[in-house]
Amino acid sequence: LFVLMNNTGDSITVKEVIVDNVTHSFGSNPYLGLGGKVSLDLNGVAACTGSDKKNYSVKVVYESSSGLEKTVDLGNVALECVEEVTPTGSFVSEGGGHEEEGEGVPYICVGVPLTECGVTLSDSGTYCLSQDITYADDEVDCFTITGNNIILDGNYHTISGNGSVYGVYAAGLNEIVVKNIAINDFYSNIQFLDVNYSTIQDANFSGADDFAVEIIDGFSNTITGNNVFENENNSAFYINDSRALGSNTITYNTINSSAYGVDVENYGDGLSENNIITNNTITENMSSGIYLYAVGNSTITDNTIEGGAVGMVIHGDESNNTFIGTIFFGPFDSYWFIKYASTSTGLAFTDTIFQNEYGRISISQQVDLPDDELAGVSPTNVSIENNAVSVDTSELSFFSGITAAIRLDGVGEINSPIALLENDACGDCSAVTALGDGNYSFTTTNLSTGVYSVGEVQ
Fold first, then answer.
1. Percent of the chain topping pLDDT 90
2. pLDDT at 1
3. pLDDT band at 90, cuts 50/70/90?
4. Measuring CA to CA, which residue among 56, 48, 53, 52 is closest to residue 84?
5. 3-state secondary structure string, 300-343?
6. Which of 279, 270, 351, 262 is nearest to 313 (CA)?
7. What residues contact 282, with CB distance under 8 A and at least 6 apart?
8. Secondary structure of residue 398 in the 3-state scheme
9. What is the mean pLDDT of residues 437-442?
């Protein structure tokens, strides 16, 4: 029996299901309102016995209420036998009527149904959460994964704990996927220990007593497309790479109000290398947006870090990390970013923006942080205030003499604007561009200590 549930947000008519290129019909096409279900007997598709499984290519053809015919390609689906010579689709799709954005196509999860916590997932294949679960046990993890090649699909449902156990736990495995799920209020919402080549995607996390996602001694893992809210006790994404395996990717996530946003560390020998941290939006974190300890040869690109105590902390024996396109959006309580004194070498920032409500300073060229020295860029040595941008290049020698674009917002209307340095005409500055609404921009080719502003030609 292959069971379909209508989550399209529209009434539909199911026309056929195509399994391994063989079309199966319903006799009369069933009409399904939202949440309606229909079953198709797949007996005879293939023979299997006992607990055997086989992957089938599955497509569903349906017609919307407007008469538009659509096909949903489910890809390879693991169907499991429950009786001899009777392949059964243990399909569950009760995931809140989610649609793929812009497509109007129903999201359909196909796999072994999950209706409660305290469950061990051991056989490879897909598991589908079929309802929201509130879990009060303080000894057994909600879902424990013990087999390779497992997909845990939350089917847009939520599991909630009481801060005592893990929401999802896996150890010593490869190719695990956790997706389409909200996990709240566990000790750590996910813990992977020595898990590799795995993915956590399109999930929401909040309220963990420790980490939202914790990966210890794993490599080549991807964390992408997730949202973390109010994980105030510790890091949103914590990677402790004590074996220096590296190659983890954290990308396109949104993190708000955690103690730390993205936290990659190696407290063993060597460096955690070849990590990619890119296109994340990290806001209002209490300690730092990005924290790196003993990380090397990694790329940190196109991240926006807004508010909190410190934008970014670079600490430990770092080497040859590349930082491109970082936007630091203040105010920060103490530092835009800080590199603690260590034996770090070869740290390069390119296309860096410091910004707040009064404007921004953009530095497109590469800036190399000094080796073995404390380098702290703070609101006192890079200041952006009302019609006043100042950089203390005597303290930040790596900024001295470089080219920087300056924007000042909310200055008000000026008839003939001119760039000023310490209230005198700036000889190394370009002509001022009026951006409208009292906002202005210009470029200096020789960034110097002092206050840059916009005034009127006298």
1. 61
2. 47
3. very low
4. 48
5. EECCEEEEEEEEEEEECCCECCEEECCEEECCCCCEEEEECCCC
6. 262
7. 254, 255, 256, 261, 262, 289, 290, 303, 304, 305, 306
8. helix
9. 96
